[in-house]
Amino acid sequence: MTNSNHTLMGTAGGTFLSVLPNLHSEDVLKTIILAALGAIVSFLISMLLKYLIKKHKK
């Protein structure tokens, strides 16, 4: 079975265009805020663990 690039792009484009009318600006804004918050929390936890491991090794 060979995958055609045109078929893949057509399927992806059709899926995107069928989902697009169902997206609301509130959902997009909420997703952006939650993604940013998740990245910040992940970064802070990583820095905390790095500090604790460094302190424990001394």
What's the arrangement of secondary structure elements?
Layout: H1 5-19, H2 25-57
Brief digest:
The mean pLDDT is 88. Helices cover 83% and strands 0% of the residues. By secondary structure, the protein is an all-alpha fold.
Structural account:
The chain contains two helices and no strands. Helices cover 83% and strands 0% of the residues. The protein has helices spanning 5-19, 25-57. With 58 residues, it is an all-alpha fold. The chain is elongated, with a radius of gyration of 21 Å. The protein starts with a helix and ends with a helix.
Backbone shape: elongated
Beta-strand fraction estimate: under 5%
Biggest sheet architecture: none
The number of strands is 0
Computed CA radius of gyration, to the nearest angstrom: 21 Å
| Spans of at least 5 consecutive residues with low confidence | none
Please tag this protein with its features:
58 residues, mainly alpha, 83% helix, elongated
